[in-house]
Every structure is written in structure tokens, then in C-alpha cells.
Amino acid sequence: MASVLRNPALVPLFAAVGLGVGGGLWFGAHMLRNSSDVVIDKRRFPDPWNNVQQGLNTKLYSPNTAFWAGRAGMADPRAAFMQVNGESVEDGRRRLERAQKARDEMHKSV
After folding, report:
1. How far apart are CA 56 and CA 68, in angstroms?
2. Helix (H, G, I), strand (E, B) or coil at 70
3. How many helices (H) and strands (E) does the chain have?
4. In angstroms, rounded to a whole number, what is the distance separating the alpha carbons of residues 107 and 46?
5. Residue 73 gets which letter from DSSP?
6. For residues 43 and 67, what is the distance between their CA atoms, to the nearest angstrom?
7. Cα–Cα distance, 73 to 65 (Å, whole number)
8. How many C-alpha atoms does 34 have within 13 Å on its Cβ side?
9. Which of 6, 46, 75, 97 has the fewest CB atoms within 10 Å of its CB?
10. What mean pLDDT do residues 72-95 have?
11. Measuring CA to CA, how many Å separate 67 from each of 37, 53, 55, 96?
């Protein structure tokens, strides 16, 4: 601090470095809290990407917010892949929900 008082030209340097360090720490904390790409506990959450809802924006910045708002009411596309023997999409969605609940119960017990 004494060097800054003796040489005021160092103030912008300290401000820029402080802002860079603070921004880096904020971004790291943001990614750990909000990103489905970052897995800290693989045992409790082996596939966190399956828990992302259709209308949830996982990007740091998204200029097209209408896109995410339009996806909010859409059906889960994974249900189409869960169909067996010609059952309806709704049956596949129900089976997917049951599988997710069972997986969640399994992770709670671990």
C-alpha cells in the first residue's frame, strides 16, 4: 500500500489486476454453482446433464432469451427414445420420470 501512495501511477495497475482476479474468482464460483458441465461429486450425480430442464438457460450470457422462454412448455425429447413396442410418447415420458425418481432415490441413499 505504501508503494501506491508513493507512486500514484500504480493505481490503474492495481485496479486492473484486482478486477481481473475478482472476475476470475466470480466466474469460477458461478460455473461450480450453476453449470451442469462441472461435476464435483460424481458418486451422487453421475449424469447431471439429464437434470437440465427444457426451458433452463445454462449459458453465462444469452442474447436470445425468447428461445429459452419458448422451450419452457415443450415435452422432454428423451421420452421419444424411451418408447418401447409402440407405446405413446406420454407412456415413455412417464417411464422416464419413474426412472429419474428411482435414480434420485438411489443417489439420496448413497
Report:
1. 7
2. helix
3. 5, 0
4. 9
5. T
6. 33
7. 15
8. 12
9. 6
10. 71
11. 21, 14, 8, 25
Distance, in Å, from the CA atom of 3 to the CA atom of 5, rounded to the nearest integer, reads 5
Written as one string, the DSSP assignment of 24-58 is: HHHHHHHHHHH-SS--S-TTT-S-GGGG--TT---
The pLDDT tens digits for 13-39 are 999 999 999 999 999 998 888 776 677
Instruction: Quote the pLDDT of residue 24.
Output: 96
Q: Which three cell numbers stand for residue 54?
A: 427444457
Question: pTM of whole model > 0.70?
Answer: no
What the block records as the C-alpha cell of 100 is 429419474
Residue 57, sorted as left (phi over 0), alpha (psi -120 to 50) or beta, turns out to be: beta
